[in-house]
Amino acid sequence: MKHSRVATKLSSFAKSGQQSMKYSCQFICQTNPLFIQLTYFTLISFAGYEALKVLKSQDKSNTMKDLDLLFTSVSASTVSSMATVEMEDFSSTQLWILAILMLIGSEILAGNTLFAPCLRYMVWTFKKITGKEECHFILQHPKAIGCRHLMSTRKCVYLVVTVVSFIILQTILFCSLEWSSEALQEMSSYEKIVGALFQSTNARHAGESVVDLSSVSSAITVLYTVMMYLPGYTSFLHNYEDPYSKARERDNSRRLLKDWVFSQLSYLAIFLMLICITEREAMTTDPLNFNVFSILFEIVSAYGNVGFSVGYSCKRLLKHDVYCKDASYGFVGKWSDKGKLILIVVMVFGRLKTFNLKGGSAWKLR
């Protein structure tokens, strides 16, 4: 009798679990993709924060602030590569956690700017190997699949040409302006070219750097700022608006909201003003480090999920401070807690920028 009751309870528990999974899957499928991705990045960021907090750092006497751990976790999960503390302070286990968070996010070319061409090439290869008609249909009608990463051959070619052109442009400018600079003087010609190519490839997303960006030419930092701002699928091909897209809008008020919502550039301007307010004291006492362009560079880097930083130099202090220490981990590490919190919002906002690419269509600059 007891065994039958246990079996009945287990059976009912299994059925309720299946129903819960079914309803959860239906809820996820019917929910707005923005809500899904926002929830996803929020959960993995806080999970990473909890893991970093539980694990001990390299220097046990140096206790890291909770905000710095949260900032590092959000930076890793959104693949922004920004830091407010030295990476050497983290233990090996903590570094593995950060690596896992970055792998969950995706990286550089194949996982970012060239993801669509790589995906189409994989489908084409699979079609050649298997000969399945489904693959042929996907290649011929990518829009019918409903996946934004599946593009036509023409769009993929334009995208590849754009990405390669940007890398070549940055490499040429970097080599022409920094070839004889102090940062590259100990490198051979081959190492300089490889370093310039590595730097240029990382400018769109990954944020790894071979030189101190505060020492490079202003023209290069401006170019990097533009590169960081551009979305991953920027191409020379003009994507004409689908004439039937507006007809498919179910709600006119929803379409009106999309038209009148701020553009991405407006949001960056708002973030810049907010951070200038939170850092106004430092901008007054330390204007050479805390200038508007350095703050803008950091914001665009966070928004583009790149991670470049001009850093912080004690040599630029107006009054020499014997206790001052250069920050190799990033300029944001010297910001106030309010400024760091705003930049956390910028990183998450930048990771979800695909949902606002058409924002501000009602705002015309004439």
From TrEMBL:
Keyword DNA repair: no
Protein family membership: Belongs to the TrkH potassium transport family. HKT (TC 2.A.38.3) subfamily.
Record localization: Membrane
Originating species: Brachypodium distachyon (Purple false brome)
Protein's name according to its UniProt entry: Uncharacterized protein
Gene: LOC100826450
PANTHER family linked: CATION TRANSPORTER HKT1_3, POTASSIUM TRANSPORT PROTEIN DDB_G0292412-RELATED
One Pfam entry name: TrkH
Top-rank taxon: Eukaryota
Keywords: Ion transport, Membrane, Transmembrane, Transmembrane helix, Transport
Chain ranges passing through the membrane: 34-55, 95-119, 156-179, 219-240, 260-278, 290-310
Keyword RNA-binding: no
